[in-house]
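Example record used in the benchmark description.
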Amino acid sequence: MIDSPMPWLVLATVVALVYWPRVGLAALLSSRRDRLRRELVEDALKHVLSWEQRGKAATLESLSGAMHASPTTVLQLCTDMQKRGLLHVAPGGFGLTAKGEQLALHVVRAHRLWERYLADDAGLPLDKLHQAAEKAEHGLSADYLDELDAHLGHPQSDPHGDPIPTRDGHLEQLHAVSLAEWPSDKSARIVHMEDEPTVVFQQILAAGLRPGMIVRILDQDEERLVISDGVNEHRLAPAVAANIHVHPTEVGQSLPRVATSLADLNKGVVAEVVEIDDACRGFSRRRLMDLGLTPGAKVSVVLDNTFGDPRAFRIRDTTIALRAEQARLIWVRPLAPAADREGVAA
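Model output (structure tokens):
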């Protein structure tokens, strides 16, 4: 009786599936472990960089909390990063070496450029940007980031107002103070909104506040701040205001008291475009200008959406659709009720 070769074929197939170079199960598992390890290293470098920018040294406890990992795991990771020349022991914690800082700034650049892309090109809401960029930032090469940067028009900041590092590692410092520390009845421009913790960021967005807006504190006490953006008043808890950073407005700049955002324009009213907000840059700004939304152009609402978004606007004899996120970036000055919306022109 001749033994069947089938068991040997099965065994050979299983071995091939497990150990085949690059595509076998063992290779795939090894690749996944390497990827997860790289992401842990890059997350740790970002955390240490953020603490250094605040003049502090990151600690095992701060890293453990930020990375949701045990102190033992973080200690092993930091030891390995020291051996690789990415970290050094600093007074009270850890600091970045030149090599570690370079890698950390690359990851920060990837994160902030990807947020800019998601906001400008993909139209993702502000409260969804951070989580999406956290996933994408680890797999973007320097060459790809250069292409993305050029596509976006070389933006200086991300949608939250954080400066974007250059390829050579230069990072502008954000000279700003929290709104909670700003003096009352003095105009300020919002330049940054912290996106963590999420519950606080959601309250900032719900108030309709965005980078680039000019605000003034009308009243404040230990329990709340009352601020105005020139059109609406907002009441914020001090903890919420502390996550909004501002700096002085330019000479002669004041609240847009006679202007409103296009998102707040009522149907039946003709308005004149005043400007596109400074917070809107790159591809997104060019697109709005290409649609005819330039200073002096007349615009009106021709169709409201039952669900809120998008709304239809008449501009330069053309009907366009804009989401609220886009319309909020356009400042307009209401003129008069539109007796004939079809006749709205430049």
